[in-house]
Amino acid sequence: MTIHKKLMQLSAASLAVITGFALTPTKAVAEDVEVLLFSMPFTRALAELEADFEAKTGLTAKIDVIGQDVFENRITLSFTGKTGDLDVVHAPVIQLQRWVKAGWLRPITAETAAMATKDDILAGPLDSFVVNGEQWGLPFLAGTGMMAYRTDLLSEAGFDEPPATWEEMLTVAAAVKEKGTPALAMRVAPGQGFNMFVYPQIMRAYGGKFFADYPTDLTPSMNTPEGLQGLEVYSKLMNDYGPEGIGNFNFGEVTAAMQSGQVAMIIDESGLIAQTLDPEKSQFADKISIAAVPSGPAGRSPAIAVHGLGIPADAPNAEASFKFIEWATSEETLTKIAISAGFADFTRASVADNSDVTERFKSIHPDFLSLRVQMLNDAIGHYRPLIPQWPQIGQAVGENINAAVNGIMSNQEALEAADEEIANILAE
Amino acid sequence: MPKARTGPKQIIGVTMMLAFVGFTLLPIIWALILSFRPTTHLFEPIWESPTFLTLDNFNTLARSDFPIALFNSLVTAGSSTVLAMIIGVPAGFALAKGRSHRKFIASWALLLLRMAPPVGFVIPLFLIYLNIGLLDTWAGLIAAYMVLTLPLVVWSSWTSLAQIPDELIEASLLDGATLFQTLIKVVLPAARPGIVATAVLAFLIAWNDFFFALIITRSSTVTAPVSVMNFVSYASVDWGSIALASVVLTLPTVPVIIFANKYIVQSMGGAVKG
Questions:
Q1: Alpha-carbon gap: A280 to the closest alpha carbon of chain B (Å)
Q2: Pick from A233, A231, A220, A290: which is nearest to A412 by CA?
Q3: A12-142+306-364 and A143-304+375-427 agree in CATH topology
Q4: Nearest 5°: phi and psi at A210?
Q5: Is the previous residue joined to A182 through a cis bond, with omega within 30 degrees of 0?
Q6: What pTM was estimated for this model as a whole?
Q7: How far is A186 from chain B (nearest CA, A)?
Q8: Chain B residues near residue A15 by CB distance under 8 angstroms
Q9: Which of A179, A198, B172, B204, by CA, is between 20 and 30 Å from B183?
Q10: CATH class of residue range A143-304+375-427
Q11: pLDDT digits 0-9 by tens, B122-177
């Protein structure tokens, strides 16, 4: 036998070993309902209540809670690959239009209409899951914009009250910075869920808008005198009065800056604002208070983010899926999580009326729940336009706004570029 | 015994080396410090509050899915390395010592596999796995890692084994050893530095992989690098756990590198003389 033949035999034997190994699946036995959520206080707390779902319905559930970036990749692969391995998915409203247009979700209109407790769900968050007249999900989270501020630092700078308008913010920020502490931190990192979650609060307060007349006329209209004024205020606040490195701050850095005393004010999502009031996470919790998002010449426009649960189009058992959604968004579950996790962004009116919940939030801040309701009432549903192309547009515009704050282009150039990119994306 | 040199050139050289080592180790030292810092003091310099230390991050990490993910990483990186060595080293031996006229094609095929971006493999693999039920399985991930490691092992062992003198192999065969015995008892010991270095590199490629695991694992077989990303959530980033997980993820590679260090150095210098 030649060397060549012997080597071939040796390689073939090795290949047989690995083939045998590779064909031995190790996958776990599937549950009745497979749920994929991305990590946030509510979803982490929900995962711990799996046994409650089983006790209530007799069905078993496997709730996977993963990082947001990992979620985005997995969900896209599952949807596009039509894997049929998920029964319930986390559905942020901001992605809803795109998912519905792509046919990735199953409508739950009839099931929702038949719910006995439907009217208890806050109307705004519930309606945000309506696309083309169909209901595509039920909300579990409605977050909104809020301000957290250091009472001691503002007082040292000569202010007993937080700024009520963006013009006042410029004055207060200058005085606080003068005393040696960076005044204000907001998200600047580019992204539809990053700087484009907070920046429209200033843009809209000055009368700026994304489109000429949403939703009837989608002509890009960011480059207006009002829009420019809003961007100038945002750029000035971040560059002149923000902490070092603000040009790349995201929600994590913004919250951490407030918790560690590196900044006097932040404006961010209500759930994050609650974390700055938590003494276990925040060094200066006892010196932090909360306030409304400042208003402008065109009024106040707090940010709004709604998240819910939906059913993938290829989910094998839609009835079991809806039972899970109904349980996860029920008054009982939301109340439990509001109390156990200090979850403030609940979506049922009855939860806010629960005495245990009100007591829980009084210990965080006496005005927290009422301020949240006020901000939700002031917020507009299409704060970020509800169109299928928004994730793409939000990313592109976010990069231009970030470039303006970081001095890579002027404010005017950034808005011109933003309008151009929006037009290109809509034309695709 | 050569005299120790302490001239200005040596002092500058050592200073530059220490500066470079300090620079490269800085992220690991920083992560180590963050691992012991409470959430409230994470972003404060350690010298401002050196006594604010906690073991909370260890509890958080222990209660998370990270330990299981670490075990998954160990199983998949270890298995794919062993299997790649079992298949790749004989293949490298065949290419180094066989008399095939198609070596040129083999070398180009291997280079192509090494140069192709992982995304070129992962989508077809995802679709195939979806149909044959290998998504989220150890076996699927191990086979996927071999797409990365096998070309490296074949190429690297080809280079190492080519340095073994033909006379050594012929002598072994003349003495009555089979080809398999010759490979195991004569060739591999002589080429040990190159083979060990190859195995270490193959293990590290699989151990540090993020992309393949992100696409073809789910909850059951998620690996440690992907699991670290699960500490980045919608409403917060658990920097303490991320720092500790990064340190833990680095630890298993340290004994491997220490054990294999002399072989790696030898393999770089060319250990076998003809």
A1: 7
A2: A231
A3: yes
A4: -80, -40
A5: no
A6: 0.76
A7: 14
A8: 87
A9: B204
A10: alpha beta
A11: 888 988 998 898 988 999 999 999 999 999 999 999 988 988 898 999 999 999 88
